[in-house]
Amino acid sequence: RRPTIGYRNRMAERGEEEPLDREGRIQARRQRIAERNSESSEDVKRIEHEKEMESRSNQQIAETRAHIKALTTEGESEVTAVRIARDQQENERRISQEVSRQARRRKLLYEAEGSARQNAVVAMKWSSLVDKEVAQELKAEIEAQREACDGIIEVKDSLLAEFRLELKQRDEEYVKALKKQAEDVDDLLEQMGRQLASLRQMHEEEVDEVETSFMQERHERMQAHEAEVQALMSRRREREESYLEARKHRIEEDQRRLEAARVQAAEDYSVLKIKLETEIQTLEKQLEEMRATYQLNQEKLDYNYRVLVERDTENTTTIKHQKRKLTRMADVLSALRAKHAREEKRYKQENAELTEDYKRVTEQFKDLQAKFQHFEESDTRRYRDVWQMNEEIVTGLMRKVLQADKIIHEQQLGLHWFPPSEQLFVAGRGDGGSTHAASSADSAAVSSRGSVDNDGVQRMLGLLCDEAGFLVEQKVLKLLEPLPVEEQNLLKIDSILKVLGVQGAADLQKLLSFFVADAESGELIHPNDAMKAIKAFIEEHQRGTRDSLGQSSRSLASTQGAQGPRGEEREFWERMSSVISGKTYRVWGALERALQRYHTLLTSRSGVIDEVRDLQQQNDELKALLNQYLSSKINEDLHVPPTHTIRLDGSSFHGG
Fold first, then answer.
1. So what's the pLDDT on residue 615?
2. Whole-number Å distance between alpha carbons of 431 and 385
3. Which of 37, 492, 527, 635 suits 260 as a labelling partner, its CA being 20 to 30 A distant?
4. Rounded CA separation 593/597 (Å)
5. What is the pLDDT of residue 54?
6. In this structure, what are the phi and psi dihedrals at residue 518, rounded to the nearest 5 degrees?
């Protein structure tokens, strides 16, 4: 049809007439319609006669169908009853299975929650095993962990046994259901056999009756049809003659159309062939690329598999090596235990010798204390000089900040700027006299520490020097290297006491109470427990310090400026922090955010201007290229040049 339509369109465009006369075709169509109407009236009469003849046979068929339908309905009701009973049993079984499944799910959830809690307890205890240093305690904890793990496994095994028992019961129920289903199928087959026999007998009887009715009706219709056939044959001969004449004209017209369609089909075939060949080449290229990709992925997977196999081998070797290492470490542990016993005996002897040396060291410490007081006063004077220099630097920086604030208010915001009072930069400067008082108080505290001299304190200080040496700074240790051992220990003890916050004899006695294991015999704790005693003392001392500071904070606040340099420093930094108010900081923040938004806006505008410039340049290039294509000489060879369908109007193009 498409080539014929195209041929007709081209004939219409060229203004040529079709081969057949249009008026002749219309007249022939009208004649065919009139003949069809006459035939339809005759058919109506014939159909009415046939309906009268078919009334008897239709009545017999209707009665037969009613008998068969009644018998079929009765058989279906019996079969449906069996199926309904079986469906009811299956529904009850599924409900019971759902209840059992929900119960199993609840058991699994309860077991999972309990197992998760027990696993969490076990996991938390593993981290505490690292802190165990005694082998017997570690072994006891490991045995406890093993018992807890065995308990978890027993719970899971009991639940698994319960599920296995239920699975066995389900298997037995399934076998019983199969037997019951086989019995139902046998009953159903027996009923269907009886129904089939009765239905077959009824079909035979009804078919005989219908056949008798049809034979009688057939004889009557044969006589009527013979007369009708004779009339139809005469009319058929007349129509065949007219049809042959019309067919001759149609064949000639169709031959001309077929020739035009062949030409158009050849052109379409050549275009389609070129297109399909191009697509085939593209698909073949894509197929080769996909094959290469699949080959590369296969090689990667093979490589990853070999790497995993090698890693598994390495892990097996590592496990064996770690087992051998565990055996060696057990031997090392036994050797270290023996060495620890020997070293503990030797350290006890050295502790006794160091106790004898402590008295001599105490006398040397008193001389060193006087020297320390002299150097402390010198360091205090040097500190005040450095403080005054830094105070002048900070004051200069604050004046620069005020100058910047003045510029922001007057130039950026257009507001009046009011400078702060000059008293902020001159008030509160002292001469360092209070520092000397503070140093005197510190020296008195050191003297009070040195005044405690008894056997228990000496042994405690020796234990601190041995076990808490890490509290001494590295710079102090380097300075103490040229001194004798006794003086080094004395200075280490003083540095440790300062770090711990011991200020007098009361604090020293309090520290001693944490190191005494037996108050009656005066025996000290084991050196391994020294760190625990130090931690307990620090916590207790910090709590006492916080309580005392909370009670005397108000009284100290009124006299802080006159008691030491720390009050003056705090007052100075408070004055410097109040030079710029919080409102000014908020103004600076708002101005900064506004300037950032303005900068972002300018940056976006610059980018948009560049994009517009690029688009204008591309538009000009496209205009020039389109004009070049439209003015090309090859357009003159086309039947419909682009200039007839495209109109250039300013910078817009419209389809013609």
1. 92
2. 10
3. 635
4. 6
5. 59
6. -130, 115
Q: What is the pLDDT of residue 475?
A: 73
Evaluate whether 575 touches 424 at the Cβ level (below 8 Å): yes
* 436, amino acid identity: H
- Dist. CA 626–CA 146, nearest whole Å: 87
What is the rounded CA–CA span in Å between residue 587 and residue 313?
69
- Rounded alpha-carbon distances, angstroms, from residue 636 to 629, 643, 648, 654: 12, 10, 18, 21
CA distance 292 to 303: 17
In this prediction, residue 650 carries a pLDDT of 43
- What distance in Å separates the CA atoms of residue 414 and residue 407, rounded to the nearest whole number? 9
pLDDT digits over 522-548, tens only?
Answer: 788 888 888 888 888 888 877 766 665
Sign of the four-CA dihedral 10, 13, 15, 20: positive
Q: What is the pLDDT of residue 15?
A: 42
How far apart CA 124 and CA 631 sit, in angstroms, is 87
Non-local (6+) Cβ contacts of 71 within 8 A are 195, 198, 199, 202
From the list 611, 612, 631, 623, the residue with the least C-alpha distance to 649 is 623
- In terms of residues, how long is the chain? 656
Contact 71, 202 (CB under 8 A): yes
414 conformational bin, left if phi > 0, alpha if psi -120 to 50, beta if neither = left
Residue with tokens 């802190």: 131
Q: How far apart are CA 542 and CA 501, in angstroms?
A: 9
Residue with tokens 């015999």: 521
Distance CA 462, CA 493 (A): 8
- State the pLDDT at residue 56: 65
Do β-strands 516-518 and 646-649 pair in parallel, antiparallel, or remain unpaired? unpaired
The whole-angstrom separation of Cα 536 and Cα 54 is: 119
- In whole angstroms, give the CA distance from residue 92 to residue 22: 79
Indicate the residue type of 642. Answer: P
Tell me which residues of the chain have a pLDDT lower than 70: 1-21, 38-57, 423-454, 544-566, 643-656
